[in-house]
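chain below, 232 aa
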Amino acid sequence: MSEVVLRLAGCDLGYGGDPVLRAVSLQVRAGETLALAGPNGAGKSTVIKAVAGLASISAGSLRVTERRGYVPQAAVLDPGFPVSAMQVALMGAYHRLGWWRPTRRADRAAALGALARVGLADRARDRFGLLSGGQRQRVLVARALVAEPELLLLDEPFNGVDAVSRDAILAVLASLTAAGCAVVISTHDLGLARSHADQVCLLNGRVHAVGPPSATLTGPLLRSAYGALVTL
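prediction:
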């Protein structure tokens, strides 16, 4: 059986004050994809950020591999910051180098290779902020690839993304899981969760269900998490 690369046990998650989510328990093994689903404000991004070290864990325990990559929503980054796509991708090497050390030829080759994997090698010198939303999201995926993750965390990666970029990202995720990388992705798209995830975690203030899509994306469990908002 594959190694567990992420385990949360009874975790209360938030940003100080009252937790956004209580008693979260789940685990992800190497090569698996876990989709976090639920309505707006359910806590999907909070789980991603807690595992990435950007939200607090006030109770319970977290065990996670050190080799993890994080892909935020492209909309949270300032498109006016004067950096190229290549420079953004190179940021994925900083966990090995530290911010104060210059990048090496091997790091630049890895960044260019990661941009090629997301179909943007020809845009390496272009200013990040002048790329389309979908292209910026692909650059952020490339940045995470440079970190050589065993676990990749993606926060709503398909919001405002064109079909070309969506397909490019999904192809990369498929190649990663085939190579043994685990993927955790937050999404509003239940169709994507059903077709691309090994496990689905339904959230809304707590875990309403976690397991294979066939067991979790059912009428009663969806109504439990979404209430009257869900359309079956």
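The chain has two domains: 1-67+150-171+180-232, 78-148. The mean pLDDT is 90.
thats it, cya
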